[in-house]
Amino acid sequence: MIVDIKDVVSSPIIATPGHSHVYKYNDVYAVKVFAGERELEMMRLAGDCSITPRGRVLHDGKQVGIIMELGKPVDVTDFDLQDKKELSEKLISLVKSLHHKGLLHGDIKLANLLFAKDGSIRLCDFEGSQLEVNSTAPEEPTLNWISRVRLQNLDWPLRKEDDFYALGLTIWEIFTGCIPFQGLPEDKVEERIRAGDFVDVSEVGDVEIQGWIEKYLDLGRRLRRPDDVN
Ligand SMILES: Nc1ncnc2c1ncn2[C@@H]1O[C@H](COP(=O)(O)OP(=O)(O)O)[C@@H](O)[C@H]1O
Ligand SMILES: [Mg+2]
Fold this sequence. Notes:
Layout: E1 2-4, E2 13-15, E3 21-25, E4 29-33, H1 37-46, E5 53-59, E6 62-69, E7 72-73, H2 81-100, E8 103-104, E9 113-115, E10 121-123, E11 130-131, H3 148-151, H4 160-176, H5 186-194, H6 207-220
Parallel strand pairs: 1-5
Antiparallel strand pairs: 2-3, 3-4, 4-6, 5-6, 7-9, 8-11, 9-10
């Protein structure tokens, strides 16, 4: 489906996270403006790992946005331990399945997870997504979810390890209800990551979950320079 930008801008806004606006459109769709052709292509390639794209928003004949199925943001406030465990397991499968398709997400965090109409969990925000086979340096990695090795090597191509590190932190988010380094200004977050600081895994009471988080953080820390075959 194709709609013109002027039919969208009077719709209610769901979120204005940064440079993009997300609108609720005709009750059943979400529309993200600005979002380009590459992001839409990545969503299509991601198949059932992505909230389902439905079409494009045009301005003067050029794509400025994406129409998608309206999802429900994940709110863990009322989740009990079992709900959180199940969600974490589903998230792990989701990331594995995306990687299996040869795609890297590049911005895994709780805010980029949605419940689809059919009840499944899906990723949104494929702006930083890339094909693994010819990946390049991440364009605007989200600071709070990146590893020290990534922060020190922003020119290395995006790798599965980046998604794994962010996955570990997202599981921590699910259990604590907080984002990593919550409330700290960007320069302080950067200082802390450079100093080798990360989240306090013991804040997650469950030892099994602590193990999951540590596993993915450790996998994430294995990010290597592209020519290092070992
Ligand atoms: N299809 C959708 N249905 C419902 N909410 C959505 C949808 N897509 C995005 N959102 C909401 O809008 C927010 C911002 O969208 P996102 O694609 O992550 O933009 P950004 O690249 O600016 O972070 C998401 O965190 C989510 O809460
Ligand atoms: Mg986002």
